[in-house]
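haha ok so turns out i had the wrong file open the whole time. this is the CORRECT one, sorry everyone. sequence first:
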Amino acid sequence: MTPAPHENETQVTLGRWTGTYHVPRDFSSPQDLQHRLDSIVADHLASACKSLLEQSFRSADSSVWRIRDLNLNFFLDAGFYDAYGIARDWGRSLAGKILSIIESGEVSDSILHFPNRAAFLAQFLADLAAGRAWGKWYYEELSDLQVLSDRQAICAIFLRRDPPAAELLLQIASIGRLETLLQVLDDNDAHLIFDLCFETASAVLPDDNAQKWAGRVLELWNSAPLRASSRSEDRFRDALRLLARTLSRFPAGQGDPQLRATIDGLLELRRILLEIRSPTLVDILIKNLAAGELHSAIELATRAGAFNSAEALAFFAKTVQGDVPWANQAAAVVLGESNKEKFLTSKTFAEGESLLSSFGGIFLLGPSLMALMLEELARSTAGPSEAPEKTAAILRHLTAVKCFGHSRFADSSDDPAIRLFSGFDGTSFRKALEYLNAQQLNLTGAHSVLLQTLFDRDESHAPVLFAEIVSIPAGRSVFLLRDLAREEWLDLIPISAKECDVSEVLRSSVRRISSISKLPPAALYLSDLLSSRIEPSALHQVLTSVAGLHRINDSTKEGLAAQLGLTHQQLAFRLDSARQNVPYFSLLGVWPDLEIDPNLDFLFTLVSRAALRHYVRKLFGFESSSPGHIYQNFLSGLSEIRRMDQRLEVRLPASPLSLILRMAGLQEQKYAPSWLKGMEVWLLPPQE
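then structure:
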């Protein structure tokens, strides 16, 4: 039984009826009785059953049920005269059996349930694309499509418009089978389906929606790669990918002509920028569009080999609305996948070659990472591994991507600018992490190197320690030990959420810090949650390493604020900051199927966080900024990196607060990371 397209109409389909009639041996006309009963089944039973079911189903119920077989017994007087009465009786029994199955929610190999017709057809298309649809009993009604090829059958289902194409596309995406489907289709098929998703769209394009939809689509595009290739013939398959992502998040976009124009415009923009190739010309093109100089932009694109660009550039100029940083970010997103294919390193980056990246801000952090002895840390960690050089490059890369945060890992992990900076030359950073054996690494030794560096950098303050438990994604908890005087994170240790007593974790961590710090800790403060999970008898063992032990409460906060020279509000902010900031750096749970050793993840969280702290201390007034705030205001934006002789020239992004960087003298630096083996980095200010 399946509902028809109209909301209030119930459709009953009897695929095959097999009747066995039992009559007395002396019955005079069995063949005549058979014909009469067959006529009742053929002419009246389905409508009688449907009528009874309509009275029972809610009008809004769009469920689809597939029932392989029902066995029913009926009794009647062979001399009946009321065929309609027999049909009603049999229909009532049949409907009752169907209703009992539906009401019980019974599902088995012989009984299938789909929430609506779109879900049923989405499953059919998924099975068809995987080569396992035909021969399944519940697809019998679609058997007329067997004469077609798989791709033709897929298009035929969409062309039936039951349900609408956009709804069916969303259902396929929701069960995770869109990629399977797209592998069967060619780009012309994808073009047809994309058109069907907007066939009822109005021809009017409201101007006020242009940048709204562009921002949404670019955000979703940036969240994960569309695919592995940037070939132009994939354009409409990419259009379906973007449409499915967008409608999944913003269902009100169904049929919106501006959404279609946005997807078309951005994919055409990608084609144009890929054909231009030169980052310098792309930068000039964007500035022309932002300045409203559309004619100059079209001429430049044509001279660079990008033809038929007028419509797409006009769309982009209208969308940009004079906002050059926004336009640069958009260009970085649409070019991102083609950049990632290059897998550049300082060895393979050719003389005079340049590239665009939205993560070129990593080069701003270079001096801070060098001050933290990143190379020594990476080599110390990698020392016992089978391939220490390659492992050290992976660890440098891990530190760099962590600086941009958990939410940007998918896009930053294989970014060419970060590869150039770290020296990582593998084909996939994600795969490199999966194969990295943390058991072979010297994590403890590397942690000691980091602590020594942090304490050597500032010997003027005795540590004021604060220990707490912080929750992070993937249902995990970590023990965090901080130095509130320097505002540094000193130790991150995974703990079990069910582990009641964490006394040993606290004791060993404080002992390690005390043995390395130049001055013994002045005090140790415990958060309420941590205090509740420590046996009181264990605290006296901790006191041998610190001068005083306190629980954080209103009375101790007053003395702590005075000791640190902070206002009550500043102290409250500092104490609470880890709750938001630990999840920013951690890569645990970033992808469900990517497992990272927690100890490795947390050690390099300490390194990345320390690098951002070192960097932001150079920016007066931003010392307490969160890592997300640092990224948004100082590291975000489009950078151009060019190889010139033995140097990398990095044209820094025009980030929102790049003026502060200029005032701090951070935009024109030169440095030579030891891991780049003689390659020098020259930082250049954003182009005016």
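Residues 30-56 form the longest helix (27 residues).
again sry for the mixup
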